[in-house]
Design goal:
Helix content is 36%, strand content 21%. It is of the alpha/beta class and 355 residues long. The chain folds into two domains: 6-142, Rossmann fold (3-Layer(aba) Sandwich); 157-351, Rossmann fold, CATH 3.40.50.180. A seven-stranded parallel beta sheet has the order 8-9-7-6-12-13-14. Strands 2-1-3-4-5 form a five-stranded parallel beta sheet, sandwiched between helices. Helix 1 crosses helix 5 (116-142) and helix 2 packs parallel to helix 3. It is elongated.
Length: 355
């Protein structure tokens, strides 16, 4: 074990799940389980005592549930990365999306089928990915010198021809629900372009997230449906577990339609931002604003490169406001980003680029 292991607290009212998570976490490298708790009250006491780096936190618990713990963590600004356990049901999806919008780092779906060994293997893989992201976050916190200087905003080359974007495409992953809640409601009712969003989430969760964003936004936000027309002033979120692209309507003169497809995953993602961005490049050329936001991995970067070749504008979320500075970092390193902005001003920067 390293001198600086990830310190984890496991919180679940089920003794069985506590045991399963403990067994899986114990197999991972450079991890130390500092405690377990069966409800939120005991969790808060353990947080104060052990000061963990990460919490595996159940939502549905007696006395003090996971949502109350999240609220308390937010008020106290504790430097903890919470992970929410969630059952894969509509109610579970609604609660989980709310938790993510409150700042939960990620979620793990409690299994409803499959063998114990299969479920353990999936949990192991998911926790490994999350721990990799937490380690990167720790390195950023420890290193006071930023390795990447924020890019200074500059006029995108496409503006030299007086051409602005006719569509906005957004790719986002870990930390996305909270980040989207801070930008989509800022798009005004007078926005005259469509917005298409790829958020890496499973089925059920994207429809719930769309409903929540729609309830607080001037624009109509919806989960994309196959063959529906692409309308200006609407925000479309790709279905979980499906890809989203656009193509001409089969009816002459009827514009473009959205297609929801079951093509293979790209970058281990489905939906994939690269898949969407390529489609936007094909049908809008350089009149696209491609936005890359918080998330692990590099999904979206290749699609943005194609857009940039055609003269599109690329906007990235800055490091400080990202839950995980993975996808934006890769785009910035590729030299294709025109504007880097914090989440507080990201919507304003996007709006500057459209008609």
């Amino acid at each position: 074990m390293s001198d600086n292991p990830i310190r984890i607290l496991i919180v679940d009212d089920s003794a069985m799940y506590r045991r399963i998570v403990l067994d899986v976490v114990s197999e991972l490298e450079d991890v130390e389980v500092v405690g377990v708790a069966e409800n939120g009250i005991k969790a808060m006491a353990a947080i104060a005592k052990y000061k963990p780096d990460m919490i595996v936190l159940d939502i549905d618990m007696p006395e003090m549930d996971g949502m109350a713990v999240l609220d308390a963590l937010g008020r106290n600004r504790m430097p903890v990365v919470p992970i929410m356990y969630s059952a894969h049901t509509i109610d579970g999806a609604q609660i989980t999306v709310e938790a993510l919008q409150k700042g939960a780092f990620d979620f793990i779906t409690k299994p409803s089928s499959g063998t114990l060994e299969d479920n353990r293997r999936l949990l192991h893989a998911h926790l490994s990915d999350i721990l990799d992201a937490v380690r990167r976050i720790q390195r950023i916190r420890i290193n006071t010198e930023r390795r990447f200087s924020p890019l200074k905003p500059r006029p995108p080359a496409v503006f030299q021809n007086g051409i602005k974007s006719r569509v906005i495409g957004i790719g986002v992953s870990t930390g996305g629900p909270q980040a989207l809640l801070q930008i989509v409601p800022k798009f005004p009712q007078t926005l005259h372009v469509p917005v298409l969003i790829v958020q890496h989430m499973p089925a059920l969760f994207t429809s719930v997230m769309a409903e929540r964003l729609d309830s607080v936004s001037p624009l109509h936000v919806k989960e994309a449906e196959d063959a529906e027309p692409l309308l200006s002033g609407n925000v479309y979120i790709a279905q979980g577990g499906k890809h989203m692209r656009i193509e001409p309507s089969p009816h002459a003169g009827k514009g473009l339609v959205i297609r929801v497809t079951d093509d293979p995953p790209e970058n281990n993602c489905k939906p994939s931002a690269d898949y969407l961005f390529r489609s936007l490049a094909e049908h809008f050329g350089g009149q696209v604003t491609g936005v890359i936001m918080t998330g692990m991995g590099a999904d979206g970067v290749e699609g943005l490169k194609r857009l940039k070749q055609l003269g599109a504008t690329v906007v990235a979320q800055d490091e400080a406001s990202c839950a995980v500075f993975g996808m934006p970092k890769k785009a910035i390193e590729s030299g294709i980003v025109d504007v880097v902005a914090p989440i507080e001003t990201l919507a304003a920067e996007i709006l500057k680029t459209v008609v």
